[in-house]
Write a structure and sequence with these properties.
Length: about 575
């Protein structure tokens, strides 16, 4: 039988529809707030007044309306309130919000997003902290039972201090010494894959403390957090403390912390990734042709199963009326051609991506990492920066080195800055040249240098104006280093000092200079008096020594005279004896 040539078969067109899906089908803009609405509420009232109602909290007249109005105006998507003191669990009536009063977590389900929301207030760490430890263990077990694909968001009054220990969960912004309660909270974040954006300088702006003491000791701490998944770290995240919020409290206590997360879900790309991952990886001993056959088999099995499910029995029995084996073979081969073309396009695109993200060792980056003692994670970020900004690599490394020379945690700073540049949150690394000149001019110490670098990073958009203003402030100050640390929160929050505040600095500088001048004069006078006293004492001691020596010399001369007299007396006596003897002999 003569062999027939293989003809090129086009993909089937029957029922074919062209669908153009947008790269981002759904965009999310989540505004999240955590607030303790009645912290440290006591039933005791001042003398002469009625006892307070122990279950007040959200039951204060008009309080719910005030909070709702502010949340609505700010387009808050979810607000977690602690210590509401509501008497029973349930859904509260409201025309704008779903108000859930419950001790359990809340599950939010959307077509392409599933979120578990945890609102919690940790008890204080007392004694060995058994109650706090059990609290965090219970919360971790609860959230681990959430739906498999559900993301976790936590709004927490932690009653703890964190920041001195840096991980993926807690950053180094305005660090507080991590205490025992903070260690438990930190462990909970790591166990559940959460992070606190208000501890990271790349996300948070303004003041970081959320609680102020009412005892008058001016104690301020960061106790409240909105925690989001660590997998959201590359999203557009921002965080701040809502200082202008009105909570109808008699005194300042807790401030709400506000976090915003903006991101989108690209369903087509994720769908292809999931399908490709389901194919699995072949064993190293499998050759290319066999691997291709396996891919064909799995793709065809999944694609054709639904289409041929209704006729599978007839096909197996060879009872498909009107359609022969050749026709079915042609259909399968046609589908193979189409699948191979699709797979080829995807593999070609993957090859281009792999070429673009070529993570080869780079000598410049290796030297830079070794010079600044950076971590492996920081090195990977630098490689990503090189791929995305190859033409600006030398300039980028030079500017980054200026930041790393005066920061506390070099690896953390490098990762933070590179992420901002790569993600487009800033166009370029902030230039430290003028800041270094200011540091040299005013001889800033290490602590103030770090604050200066933070200001340069945070105020990159109006850096020239801010540095000119800062130079004016430091020139007016008596102690530039201490003044810089003092005014840094104002500059980091996006503001500038008022002219009146600069005048106050000048006045304080003059007063301090006057005090120092008086102190120097007093020290000089004291030194002079001490010197005169010492000289006088020396003179008196030398006078006494001379009188002693003169007294001793006079006593020695009198002894000599006495001896001479005694000698003369002896001679005279001998002479008298001799003369008497001569007379007697005569």
């Amino acid at each position: 039988m003569q062999a027939e040539g293989i003809s090129k078969v086009a993909a089937p067109v029957a029922g074919l529809q062209e669908v153009n899906l947008r790269p981002m089908q759904v965009a999310y803009n989540l505004h999240l707030v955590s607030l303790n609405v009645l912290s440290m509420f006591e039933t005791d009232a001042p003398k002469g007044r009625k006892q307070r109602v122990p279950q007040a909290g959200m039951l204060v007249a008009g309080k719910k309306d005030v909070l709702r109005e502010q949340f609505s105006r700010a387009q808050i998507w979810a607000a977690g309130l602690q210590e509401t003191r509501l008497p029973a669990s349930g859904v509260l009536p409201d025309r704008d919000f779903y108000i859930l009063n419950t001790a359990a977590t809340v599950q939010v389900e959307a077509p392409r997003l599933s979120i578990t929301i945890l609102v919690a207030r940790c008890p204080r760490y007392l004694g060995e902290g058994q109650e706090a430890r059990e609290f965090w263990d219970s919360r971790a077990q609860e959230v681990c039972n959430r739906p498999e694909q559900s993301e976790l968001i936590a709004m927490i009054d932690s009653n703890s201090h964190v920041g001195s220990v840096h991980t993926e969960a807690v950053g180094g912004l305005d660090p507080e010494e991590e205490n025992e309660a903070g260690a438990l909270f930190h462990t909970f974040l790591l166990r559940t894959g959460l992070m606190a954006p208000s501890t990271f300088p790349e996300y948070h702006t303004g003041q970081s403390w959320t609680w102020v003491s009412a005892r008058g000791d001016d104690a301020r701490y960061r106790l409240d957090f909105v925690c989001i998944p660590q997998s959201w770290a590359d999203f557009n995240i921002s965080s701040r403390v809502w200082t202008e919020f009105e909570a109808l409290q008699a005194r300042d206590d807790h401030y709400p912390v506000w976090a915003q997360a903006v991101f989108g879900r690209a369903a087509p790309v994720q769908g292809f990734t999931d399908s490709f991952n389901r194919l699995g990886l072949p064993h190293w001993t499998v050759d290319v042709d066999s691997h291709r056959d396996q891919v064909y088999h799995r793709i065809l099995r999944d694609k054709l199963m639904a289409s041929f499910a209704t006729v599978r029995a007839d096909l197996q029995a060879g009872q498909m009326p009107g359609i022969g084996v050749e026709s079915i073979s042609l259909m399968v081969r046609s589908f193979q051609v189409w699948v191979w073309a699709e797979l080829h396009d995807h593999l070609t695109a993957a090859a281009h991506i792999a070429e673009a993200t070529n993570f080869k060792r780079d000598e410049k980056i290796d030297r830079f990492v070794e010079e600044h003692s950076l971590s492996e994670a920081a090195r990977c970020r630098l490689v990503e920066l090189r791929v995305r900004r190859k033409a600006e690599q030398d300039e980028d490394l030079q500017k980054l080195a200026q930041h790393l020379c005066i920061c506390a945690d070099r690896s953390f700073t490098a990762i933070s800055l590179v992420k901002k540049v790569v993600q487009g949150r800033i166009d370029d690394f902030p230039d430290m040249t003028r800041a270094v000149a200011i540091a040299e001019r005013f001889q800033l110490d290490e602590a103030s240098l770090r604050k200066l670098r933070d200001i340069v990073e945070k105020r990159a958009e109006d850096l020239a104006v801010v540095l000119a203003h800062l130079e004016e402030v430091l020139a007016a100050a008596y102690s530039p280093s201490a003044t810089l640390v003092k005014v840094a929160p104002t500059l980091l929050s996006g503001e500038l000092l008022a002219p009146e505040e600069i005048e106050v600095l000048k006045l304080e500088a003059r007063q301090q200079a006057r005090k120092e001048e008086l102190k120097r004069k007093a020290q000089k006078k004291q030194k002079k008096e001490k010197k005169e006293k010492k000289a006088k004492k020396k003179k008196s001691s030398s006078g006494s020594e001379s009188s002693d020596s003169s007294g001793s010399s006079s006593s020695s001369s009198s002894k000599k005279k006495r001896k001479q007299k005694e000698k003369k007396a002896k001679k005279a006596k001998k002479k008298d004896k001799k003369s008497k003897k001569d007379k007697k002999s005569k």
